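U., I forgot to send this yesterday:
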Amino acid sequence: MTTSVDTETHEPLSSVEDGAPYKAFSTRYRNYVLALLTLGYVFNFVDRQVMTILLEPIKAEFNASDTEMGLLSGLAFALFYAVLGIPVARLADRWSRRNVLAMSMATWSAVTALCATAGSFAHLAVLRVGVGIGEAGGTPPSQALITDYFPPERRALAQGVLAAAPNLGILVGLFGGALLAEALGWRMVFLVFGIPGVLLAILLFFTVKEPRRQPRSAVGDESLLVAIKGITRLPGFLWIASGVGFAGIAGYGLGIWSPSFLVRVHAMSLVDAGLWLGLIGVFGGTLGAVTGGLLVDRLARKDPRWQLRVPVIGLLIALPTQLAFVLWPETHRIGGPDGLPFALVFMGISAVFASFWIAPSYAAVQNLVPAHWRTQASALMLLAINLLGLGLGPLVVGMLSDYFAYTGANSIRWALVVVLSTCIFGAWCYWRGSVPYARAVSR
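Result:
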């Protein structure tokens, strides 16, 4: 038997041969890997969501409709991203999660930089499809690596830290993207945000170790189809996936179109909208993601149903505050007629509670599945959130905004009201899945 010593606690650590893979790594190295994976996820989300702040200038240059912009920011990216995520995740489970993640990161970052060369709406749409293909191998390997790097009692918190990365990505993408777009044009935004991800991919490849795998049983893993059937038959999995999907429709629909909403309805500049939405995302969203993980770690020890009921609480509190953000009169401003829209206060509150579902959902799925299916299960979750959430959310908002065009600038307001209501179905799915999930993990 081989042993090592945790450099932080000076306690003996067993190798993977003695049990779980996380025992082979020191606390310091685990935290380094978590930091690197989180930074990679920041770039993942910056490159994915940079379109959010650029909707208005790109729409103006290519004379596109809201429906077309919803397609460009949603389904054009999400379709290939979600569908290819499953075979790519299977490759990661069978080969190397570190290698798949590094190659994917280099690909999506390089194609993001190429978006600066787009000469037409169709050209840009094709490049965004390429970004989606690259990002198909981003999140699932990261989540699976965290599961092998951290013990069960720390996984929800670690997943919460990873889940907070998109909020920092929102700040960088929205505010930084707005500043660059205003100073240098929207094309330079893609170039500046794409190149650093290539460099990070190289660092990840050479410094992150692939945890040794636990012995894998061949039972139930003969093919991709068998793996998918096995995962979807796990108690509570389909309820969790449905909850994630419906929550994603509301979340992505609001998230993608919020800058345009503030510009059109509240007459904010692109830079101001990017700054305040970015700050709300990084502080409110991070607080919510980490708090959700901490609550689940504490409550689920006594009753596993809380793993999925904490997301229910978050969604049901977030909905009225999100509606208040969308419906609050534009004449009500902080500091007088030229001040900030008071509606931003409700956006800040909703950002905390709307993030409660993220970390508990992914941690729940990782707790359900055997080790050799973890990355594929994460990819199936991403299929749900991206086809329903990222794919349909922005597109439906754009279609409804065009439908309500007779209301003028308020068209986007009524479109968002309709789409936000879908989180009610998400909360119901989480509630229904909490009991079968608790029974499964208790066994």
